[in-house]
């Protein structure tokens, strides 16, 4: 099937405006009759639930954390982009759009990206009005910094805790709607199934994580805002609870999964120290504004960094990409780090690290200025590594961070199942094959505050309110199936923990489907994942019961889905026989190691349809066309 | 290093709890405290026993989910550090460590080290916001904010809502939590408009939820992993008096 993104026609700068005008509305008096479910309370979920509740819909919001405020958007450090052009440095909506399409290596949908750039300014205004304490200059104006992949300063920030402040803003708006009775919150509740009735999404099945009870919620539309799947790598910068369960189970009910192989490995993370490690910690990309990345020129040089003179250091990003230097995009910076380490220049334990050095910036600006800009990051670095980055360079290494792939959605953010909408990191639409820094927060809030309120109304107005509840057979069956699969997991009673399987899976994914991939490595992964999965279903051990708070049971269900999903990811990576953005196939590179796209054969979105547990998924394509940005070789030199 | 742990185990809200002894073996200095507990739990699961239930998610010190009292101190004795960011290099071979849940009337235990902090959410729902609609707001630079005010607001807004302040307070008060939100919003022009009402309803809700009052012990500041200062409580008191003079929450 050739998929249609349903983008409105006409000039790109008029598409959204016209579409907004053409979409149907739900009258204020009728909104109360519609029930909307929002799963996940990060930036996308909180902003969507708050806005839809305020409009008068009957909203139910779910999260697995104990409070909506704890969703992992809270951990985003660096900033949020907006085409405000406050610094008068040449920014515009078109430039932000252009940078994002180019940054994504021409694998995103133009119309979506343009709309994102269009609403970016509104997001900043909205957040300021909520009381988000963005950084200000001495005259009281909003301050900006630069981020990777851009030559303008368009990133707004709140110290090193921008995600926290934006999420608290959205959470406060959500809290207001909860008190007003427009939104009902269900914390410590995990979505385990999507209920589809007559081809349309009509509800979800959840587990109350305190009582263990499985129950259904019916609605007129469901919004999944459940984030990305990078914990498929076991070690990632995501929160421990981050999972693919909601989106994968929606996939099993018919939602297409798009471009799962687009996985962002973030260049500036604290290197792995040992097997015990449960997660990795990101050091904000904003550090690359003032930090310089280098490795010793001599292989295996074990001298402490300050003893290595300037001419014996290789500032490889500045050398290879003189016009962007240390602010080269993430995919390129990560691969460059891997390359120098593979070549024996890495520093720290196991030679898996590069230096991020602030000595020059401290000399130029003073330690105080650096402390003001990044103090909390330096503190965090010291707590974890016991090293003082004011005195010696940080050691960093790439780590799995963000999923560009996700459930396929059309221009209205609707998935291939009518009534199922997907927002934020959980969808695939805006970042192509590589996301630029400070764009995730923009997308989450753009989707939630300014896009879904319009597009969901268009759907609801056409479908009409549905008063039927959870008594329908589809709901009953969903509960039965969910309970059965939990019972099955509990009854295996094997000898390995869920965590052991997860770690093993992560090892396979990192080695074979990580920063670089090849036909051979992918075929290897596609052989080993099913073997591991088979062993899991024979030999996993879950203590405790189902009618209780049971964290091992929560974990094992998520690992089971990762074991399925990993195969889909590898399959997609094998299908995409080109290099683009974060997806780097060894077979397709230039002599100096840059990605080589194959636009003739792969200028499309690969969307996969589930066809049964032991059957190969079916591939559908959405052709991408570029009318406003010239399809070119991405260059940051 | 090898450690002896005494961990609070409680099977449910109504059940009686007790401290149980565990050994943590072969712990390395670069592990975090929670990774140490992961090791203990893996061993428990392998031997078919129920692992220790504890709240955690980001493990970066920002989500506010982790919540343990270590040797009598919420988040342990490392200054400005959440449990998830506490590292084992601050412990020694042979140490005995006591691990307990947050203890406060407003935080009932759910299981083991996990408590119910939804009371904090309800305080936020009572008034911890600016009543702004989505859309229709002025340009972000339309109202200038002195840098000093933006910085002060940010100092207060850094609160991660973990509840350590409550666990540390002899009265089980959430005053620092409330003060942080009141001060954050009252410092900014956008939040100033509703400042009087906000301080009244939030403190009222706090008492209704069973949190105690503040009697100036300042244990909260010492326990706060984000270093939120008690000066914000003074600010809250000022805002409260000002609001009362103007007629309370109905101003
Ligand atoms: S786990 Fe998020 S703050 Fe500790």
Word description of this protein:
The complex is a heterodimer of chains A (637) and B (251). Helix content of chain A is 38%, strand content 14%. Chain A is an alpha+beta fold. Among the domains of chain A are: 133 residues, Flavocytochrome C3, Chain A, domain 1 (Alpha-Beta Complex); 135 residues, Fumarate reductase/succinate dehydrogenase flavoprotein-like, C-terminal domain (Methane Monooxygenase Hydroxylase, Chain G, domain 1), CATH 1.20.58. In chain A, a hairpin with a 5-residue loop joins strand 7 and strand 8. Chain A starts with 11 loop residues before the first helix and ends in a 14-residue tail after the last strand. The model of chain A has no long low-confidence stretch (mean pLDDT 96). Chain B has 2 domains: 109 residues, Roll (Ubiquitin-like (UB roll)); 133 residues, Alpha-helical ferredoxin (Fumarate Reductase Iron-sulfur Protein, Chain B, domain 2, Orthogonal Bundle), CATH 1.10.1060.10. In chain B, the strands form 2 sheets. A 5-stranded mixed sheet of chain B has the order 2-1-5-3-4. Chain B has a two-stranded antiparallel ribbon with strand order 6-7. The longest helix of chain B is centred in the last third of the chain and has 16 residues. The model of chain B has no long low-confidence stretch (mean pLDDT 96). Chains A and B meet through helix 3, helix 5, helix 6, helix 11 and helix 12 of A and helix 1, helix 2 and helix 3 of B. The complex binds FE2/S2 (inorganic) cluster. The site of FE2/S2 (inorganic) cluster has 12 residues of chain B, from loops.
